[in-house]
Amino acid sequence: MNLPNKLTMLRIVMVPVVVLIYLLIPQDFCVVSQTNGLALRDILAFLVFAAASFTDMLDGQIARKQHLITSFGKFADPIADKMLVNTLLILLVYTHQANVVAVLLMIARDLVVDGLRMLASQHGKVVSAGFFGKLKTVLQMFAIVFLLLKNWPFVYVGLPVDQILLWGATLASLWSGFVYFVQLKDYVLESM
């Protein structure tokens, strides 16, 4: 197994680690900031998320630079990304930090787009992420960071950057899902 694939597997292993952090460490244990309730659990989850996000960036760079792109990597990398992001979004809903409607919409969009991509691949068409799909990913990552950190430092000025980013990611997610559907609707509608 090459280094990029090992990094992808490491990212998958980090998912249950962040779940254990959230489920085993009480929110009120070792509170760092009374203003926004930032505690040890939040900081540890942020560190795991940051490390996992770094491995995502690193495995892609190494795979492209050293020509180590494999079928396993093409398969496992997006799964690792979705496992990490969707798990964290669900945990943030569980702790009432993220809006359940926003998270459900983003997860539903991912399922539809994955289905569309599989259908297109059966016809030999590969669909890469467009601008809004990439924007969705960036907004999701930043939303998760600010949600994990309880909107620090913007909590001190009363600006809900975490929620703005979450809803921005939701809108970009829905729009990119619509774009995918328009691009691939012929494959869906051909069997009707």
Automatic annotation (TrEMBL):
Catalytic activity: a CDP-1,2-diacyl-sn-glycerol + sn-glycerol 3-phosphate = a 1,2-diacyl-sn-glycero-3-phospho-(1'-sn-glycero-3'-phosphate) + CMP + H(+)
An example Gene Ontology biological process: phosphatidylglycerol biosynthetic process
Pathway(s) annotated for this protein in UniProt: Phospholipid metabolism; phosphatidylglycerol biosynthesis; phosphatidylglycerol from CDP-diacylglycerol: step 1/2
EC number: 2.7.8.5
A cellular-component GO term for this protein: membrane
Gene3D superfamilies from the UniProt entry: 1.20.120.1760
InterPro entries per UniProt: CDP-alcohol_PTase-I, CDP-OH_P_trans, CDP-OH_PTrfase_TM_dom, CDP_ALCOHOL_P_TRANSF_CS, Phosphatidylglycerol_P_synth
Membrane topology: Multi-pass membrane protein
Enzyme class: transferase
Gene Ontology MF terms: CDP-diacylglycerol-glycerol-3-phosphate 3-phosphatidyltransferase activity
PROSITE patterns registered for this protein in UniProt: CDP_ALCOHOL_P_TRANSF
Keywords, sorted A to Z: Lipid biosynthesis, Lipid metabolism, Membrane, Phospholipid biosynthesis, Phospholipid metabolism, Transferase, Transmembrane, Transmembrane helix
Annotated TM spans: 12-31, 83-108, 129-149, 164-182
Subcellular location: Membrane
Family per record: Belongs to the CDP-alcohol phosphatidyltransferase class-I family.
Known function: This protein catalyzes the committed step to the synthesis of the acidic phospholipids.
This protein's name: CDP-diacylglycerol--glycerol-3-phosphate 3-phosphatidyltransferase
Gene name in the database record: pgsA
